[in-house]
Design a protein that fits this description.
- This protein is of the alpha/beta class.
- The radius of gyration is 17 Å and the shape is globular.
- Helix 3 (70-75) links the parallel strand 2 (50-53) and strand 3 (80-83).
- Strands 1-2-3-4-5-6-7 form a seven-stranded parallel β-sheet.
- Helices cover 44% and strands 10% of the residues.
- The termini are far apart.
- It has a single domain (5-248), classed as Alpha-Beta Barrel (TIM Barrel), CATH 3.20.20.
- Helix 1 packs parallel to helix 2 (36-43) and helix 7 (129-140) packs across helix 8 (170-184).
Length: 249
């Protein structure tokens, strides 16, 4: 919940002008609902940045005051929608069954869901990480066909590493990413391998290079660090293939 419509539009315009012109990195911004139209207008007809929404409701229309539907987001030019974010689960009581309905609504209207999964500190310390994250993944993707799976992106966001000062290591993130990949291959090996799995636990310009250099990490879901232009641009620079190669040498 950051930036007014005018602030968000000005920010993405400066960001678009600042970033190097490359087709090697896909960059998506997810402003609040109130800023989606302004940001889409600022990006123009051939945007260098894709547009995502932070949530949606599973019905297309009806008496659901305050909710936003997939057709509304599609009409605004959204390509992605974030679903099951840890803050939605924690603060607004979202459960796996409702998140699954949202995934299906997104896919039904040609939106690409970014399904978030992750465990709390208590769950990690009780060695329940595998049960929690694979359970959230399976529940969130229940009923999704092998043909639809490649349209989904997964984001692993360990709740214990978000705003707590306890950053996950690249090795910890990789271990969970491999676990998630193994589950995705149950649908279909080829389709499961095509799904992108992002890391999203307190990504910063200082640690992004380490995470993005890992073969098992396909990208990053960035929170607070994307709110400043220089910070965002530095993270994007770490995602460039040559940067990842230098980091892994």
């Amino acid at each position: 919940m950051h930036k007014t419509a005018s602030e968000a539009a000005a920010f993405v315009q400066r960001l678009s002008d600042t970033l190097p012109r490359t087709d090697q990195v896909e960059i998506t911004v997810a402003p609040p609902f109130t800023a989606l139209h302004a940001v889409a207008q600022a990006l123009g007809s051939s945007p260098r940045l894709l547009l995502a929404a932070q949530n949606l409701f599973w019905e297309d229309n009806g008496p659901f005051t305050g909710e936003i539907s997939a057709p509304m987001l599609k009409d605004l030019g959204c390509h992605f929608v974030i679903l099951g974010h840890s803050e939605r689960r924690q603060h607004f009581g979202e459960r796996d069954d409702g998140i699954n309905k949202k995934v299906h609504a997104a896919l039904r209207h040609g939106l690409h869901p970014i399904l978030c999964v992750g465990e709390t500190l208590a769950e990690r310390e009780s060695e329940a990480t595998e049960r929690i994250v694979t359970g959230q993944l399976l529940a969130g993707l229940n009923g999704v066909s092998k043909d639809q799976i490649p349209s989904v992106t997964i984001a692993y966001e360990p709740v214990w590493a978000i705003g707590t000062g306890r950053a996950a290591t690249a090795a910890q993130a990789v271990a969970v990413h491999r676990m998630l990949r193994a589950v995705l291959r149950r649908w279909d090996t080829e389709a499961g391998d095509r799904v992108r799995i992002l890391y999203g636990g307190s990504v910063t310009p200082e640690n992004a290079g380490d995470f993005l250099a890992q073969r098992d990490i396909d990208g990053a879901l960035v929170g607070g660090a994307c709110l400043e232009l220089e910070s965002f641009a530095r993270i994007v620079a770490h995602a460039q293939p040559d940067a990842a190669m230098r980091s892994s040498e």
